Amino acid sequence: MKKFSAKEIIKPTVSLFLTAAVVTLLLAVTNSVTAPKIEELQIKTINETKSKVLPGADSFSDELTVSYNGAEYSYYEGYKNSQTAGYIFTTVSKGYGGDITVMVGVDASGSVEGIDFITISETAGLGMKADTDDFKSRYKGKSGVINVVKNSPGENDIQALTGATITSNAVTQAVNTALELYGEVSR
Amino acid sequence: MKFLAILLTGILTNNYILAKFLGICPFLGVSKKLNTAAGMSAAVIFVMVLATAVTYPINVLLVKNDMAYLQTIVFILIIAALVQLVEIILKKYLVSLYNALGIYLPLITTNCAVLGVVLLNIDEGYNFVQSIVSSLGAGLGFMVAMVMFAGVRERLEGCNIPKSLEGLPITLISASLVSMSFLGFTGLVEGMFG
Amino acid sequence: MAEKKSIVKEFTKGIVKENPVLRLVLGTCPTLAVTTSMESAIGMGLAASAVLVCSNIVISAMRKIIPQKVRIPAYIVIIAGFVSIVQMLVKAFLPQIDEMLGVYLPLIVVNCIILGRAEAYAGKNPVLLSAVDGLGMGIGFTCALLLMSGIRELLGAGTLYGFQVLPETIPPMTIFILAPGGFFVFGILIALANALAERSGKSKAQLKGCSACPMAATCSLTGSENACKEEEK
User: Fold this and answer.
1) In a domain, C230, yes or no
2) Which of B77, B103, B110 shows the shortest C-beta gap to C227?
3) What's the number of domains chain C is made of?
4) Is A96's Cβ below 8 Å from some Cβ in B?
5) Which chains have at least 3 CB atom pairs separated by less than 8 Å from chain C?
6) Does the pTM of the predicted model rise above 0.90?
7) pLDDT digits (tens, 9 = 90+) for C211-231
8) ipTM of predicted assembly, 2 dp
9) Taking CB atoms and an 8 Å limit, are A34 and C78 in contact across chains?
10) How far is CA B65 from the centre of its chain?
11) Which contiguous run of DSSP H or E holds residue A147?
12) Could you list the residue range(s) of the whole structural domain that residue A92 is in?
């Protein structure tokens, strides 16, 4: 009787353990194949985004850091014919659906050259419309402190996306942080 | 302040059921009566907080050893084992609590809200205390939605419903209206703490 | 001949007669969450189908080795394994899909369709039939997601698969791609499916409480104090 119950316990345990071991092994194999690919992809995306937000530059510095208001930010310097053509800042702000990470290109005179999103997960059809060229191009040429308005935008205003004020504010806040960082770096 | 913001976000603006669609099965299945809805939610809150407390240090270990790709499989097993363990312990030592919550526990293993909250806490990069608060908020949000919806469904009971909408369709349409009312909280937390 | 016929039948039942979403009401979470655009719906549909077919094959092949007592944990391990593999592959080769599905990609683990099929079918039937069953259910799931996302995207954003369909002058009813629209469209679709089923003399789709729940076997609710049964009444 006793022997029987021991077998009752051991057999399921062993088979469950073996299943888990095999699955884990398979996962490790898949990971070893996909991990370098994922990393490569991330680097490629970042490089592509860099040239997109600062098209005036033909080469970039390695990652640099600047501390501002007690936080560390990483940034890149962009060069054109070995002259500083501008800076690229990566800033984060809180949107409606989580963190929005924005890469902002600022030219040497301190106005926005272009922006693009690294991560954005806003509501499809509303906040997600921020990730369109139409909206992103609204930031081009702006400098100093940018405000969000509902309609008739002035010199340094951004017209908010319809129904997505939180997203518009969040993106603008991220860009403003980048512009403040520019002031810190270019000094 | 930050904790309160996380808590309120989970309960109101990013309600797990009504905005993130996690845990729909129990929401539709166990919400017909107020007491079952409340019992189920209490069990969910309990398991969510416990699962977060257990998975957080394990995730730190996984990340440290470059094994973050095992997250999904490790977490689901932890949750499944935890649920069993809690059930056994409650049955043996806390009979009154077991009588209240016990019957809902097995249903929770495959409740996507529990795995969801664990994974989302990691995505958000919360620290240990923030993760616990966020799980608590998620669980309380689950409870608010369940209890409110149970109230709505009890009202629905005696109503004259078009024949083709009877049963599940009208339940879903009521859920749609409840969820619409929660849209009103949009921006509230950002407005208070932003 | 008879064998062939049953394979065809196993395949088609998942698409229409036993459509997992519209008839069995399983997998409701992803159905509501990822149907804001057709693109993410197709991503979710294919990812879940891949996991479903693979897990059905493996579980069916191992059905005689896995001891009865630990079959549910074993199923969960196998399913979670395939989900993680799919997740890594999607991250490496289709990063835009990964971004769109977010946390719902790993959550395929707890999609009740998959564990449900493992418990109800793959654990009892031979490999080929289980594969076909998984494929049919997967296609049924994908079709239901596409139908729902098509409606929501068209009404809520005026586009289909990202292409502008309604003229820009008609403002889209954004509410359809927000949470309430999801519940609403799903409710209407179930009502339609019910009406169609009733016309051909089939029963209505309804939450079957415990019978649809893959955990039913291990669940203490199946005792005399059965809350699910109470719910059914």
Assistant:
1) no
2) B103
3) 1
4) yes
5) A, B
6) no
7) 444 444 444 333 323 334 334
8) 0.88
9) no
10) 30
11) strand A147-149
12) 54-186
